[in-house]
Automatic annotation (TrEMBL):
Pfam families per record: Helicase_C_3 (PF13625), WYL (PF13280)
Organism this protein belongs to: Streptomyces thermospinosisporus
GO molecular function: helicase activity
Domain called WYL: residue spans: 795-857
InterPro entries: WYL_dom (IPR026881), XPB/Ssl2_N (IPR032830)
Full protein name: Helicase-associated domain-containing protein
Region Disordered, annotated ranges: 132-152, 449-475, 507-542, 763-790
High-level lineage: Bacteria, Bacillati, Actinomycetota, Actinomycetes, Kitasatosporales
Gly residues bias spans: 454-471, 777-787
Keywords assigned by UniProt, alphabetized: ATP-binding, Helicase, Hydrolase, Nucleotide-binding
Amino acid sequence: MPASSAAAPRSLAEALRGRDDASLAALLRSRPDLITPVPTDLTQLATRAGTRASVVRALERLDRFALQTAEALAVAPDPATYEELLGLMAGDEGDPAVAAALPHALGTLREQALVWGGDDRLRLVRTARELLSPSPQHPSPTGLGPTVQEATAGMSPGRIQEILAAVGLPSTHDSVSAVAALTELFTDRRRMAALLAGAPAESLQVLERLVWGPPYGQVTADPAPRLRWLLDRGLLLPTAPGTVVLPREVALHLRGGRAHRTPEPVPPPVETAAAHRPQVVDAAAAAQAYTALATVEELLKDWDEGGPSVLRAGGLSVRDLKRTAVALDVPEPVAAFWVELAYAAGLIASDGEADERYAATPAYDEWREQPAAERWARLATAWLTATRVSGLVGGRDAKDRALSALGPGLDRSAAPEVRHRVLALLAGLPAGAAPVPESVLARLHWERPLRGGQNSGGGQNSRGGQNTGGDTGDDLRTRIARWTLSEAELLGITGRGALSAHGRALIGAPAPPEPEAEPEGPGDKLPVHHRPAPPLTPLPPAEQAAASAAAARLLAPQLPEPLDHVLLQADLTAVAPGPLQRPLADMLGVLADVESKGGATVYRFTPGSVRRALDAGQTAADLHAFLAEHSRTPVPQPLTYLIDDVARRHGQLRVGAASAYVRCDDDAMLNEILADRRAAGLGLRRLAPTVLAAQTDPAALLEGLRAMGFAPAAESAEGDVLISRAHAYRTPPRSAPEPVPEGPPVPDDTLLTAAIRAIRAGDRASTTPRKQIAPDGSGGGGSGSGGLPRTTAAETLAAMQAAVLTGEALWIGYVNAEGAASQRVIAPIRVEGGFVTAYDHTADEVRTYPLHRITGVAELAEDD
């Protein structure tokens, strides 16, 4: 049962002054903007808690029922009793669910300093009342209009008396008593029922259309009889020429006393779409996690020698994004997701050069050497905490500019909270249960109804199509939630739509409840009751690091062990039945071309791929030994012949820089080149029987000869064969992008403890009774006026020296070096050299003050 306060506070500051430290800590934790900077006392804290920006931020973080409670208080009398509030929420007939949930909702409003006072005098903070109260410009969310008193404020006294006569009430001597009598009639259920019983049916239909809002309607200069009947009796009141409104008291009678059509005291349940065995979910998620690692590695390998150029406005061009999508064999929205994920993890960045382009960072080399599970945990953590939203790529911002991958304008501060909360809701289901997506979205909208109204300024919908904000009707948080469900599946946090064990650990969720069923595959959509879930907000950095490490430990046994072998086949292909050890994968990537990927990767050997390995410094003997060592099957004869044939021809031709030249000991081969029509564009001419000169550069000459079917090798100025190894281009050291915070961060326990101690000390200093120093230096003259004390330098010094001897505390006025004035309560310890060292009760520490900056001193009242 709700408890009444023993002593009713007269202001929010007094209500805060009556709280204990735990309650103040809960307030500052839920509204961290109040502690930035730390208020000097509780009066300043209350003032800051009532500012418009802070109240709007607090209202946005209320759930549906707590917000409905605040909306009901905004249309209730000020102050209101708990019984009046319960009547507005539950109606005349009552609602057990509302009655059970209302104390908690009211407690939430009190905790966040949006409501203060006891149950007999509940007051909504004035700013919140102004935001939620009905007005013609801003209709109330309840659909209620102004009260009779507000609607008749500009009405003539004669017209008010005519309304009294029409409803059968005696006339009064003034408008105030007339409005009071009309209000009393409209709030009396029995008398109102009798009045409406005689109303024409058409008039009642008009009331039915206005009862749930909006309460305003239009009338002509000569209203119809059904409207005239209502206007004569004050059931509709004019607010402007041609506009009438349904008074709040009349609407509440027609609603049965309820402020809302549908109170929502209980959050909608997250429904189960399918149930799988937890082992199947974990295996599917682990397989996708491995695929995610392979995809990111493939992306970075594609950009290893320098990626696409940076647009002038920042980001990837549409053409480069398409090229990346083709290279990864994924749709463009998915390619944007992988690119943004690598960027958020600090693996790619722009190099900052004049012809700026994207490339891998030095952190990528460190990341590649980590165990697979730890590499995945880094990616998953970066995604979970990033404020950049890849789903917005392809849309347009508020200024109608295109949003590009890696470009500006993709940060949305709500993204980490939404991602965490979506996964937390999945964690509340039994292990292996996949949710109905729409039920997850409905739950999120209940938890943050006002935040759901934010617009992102464009983006893409969950199917990858462009969304400018008006085609789907989804708000920003809903779209981020949809993207979260699909991105979590891509990343391997979920498997088959259900949260995996390592995904549960990633968000710090408790152990899952026992599964309700064991079927494999789709099942009936059964509602699942709400279960405790992880905190609504993301974990602090230290806790998130521990959760990520725990997720990596759970994932590690699920990932396949890297293999040290492949299966060579007679059709010049090699099959890798699983992930390969890094040296084997790197060498095979040079010696062969990837033909297909999946559970097993197929590599194909071609003359070009073998020549690439020879160019990298390998010999035919090295390649034969490598294949014999790492193949579980005998090396096929066609592959041996291919390597020997390419190696035999490799390096017969030598290309160097003259502009370029071709050197060969076999003059017949040079004759063949000169006779080939395809060599016409190379500008070749014979300088000697074994040397041809070219008008093109060596690189173009190499490519031209290879296109003609030859296998030339480049040579240095000294005549040695140049070995062309893979060149890994790296940016200078770059840190991962910092998430864009959504307001001040939640303070930790240490900061809260220090802040509350400082606020308490400052409040004691500002409220402690004191008396002014008399001109003769003796304490007397009554209490201060509330301003800074004013005494001469001699009086100040004498009071300080006396306080050192007696150990008494003094009230001082102090002006710092910036000219800011403040008042403090200090206990002087030592006075020397023009400084006073004292224990400052306001700051709760020992400080030293220059005497010339003290405006004056006053003694504290004797009873303190």
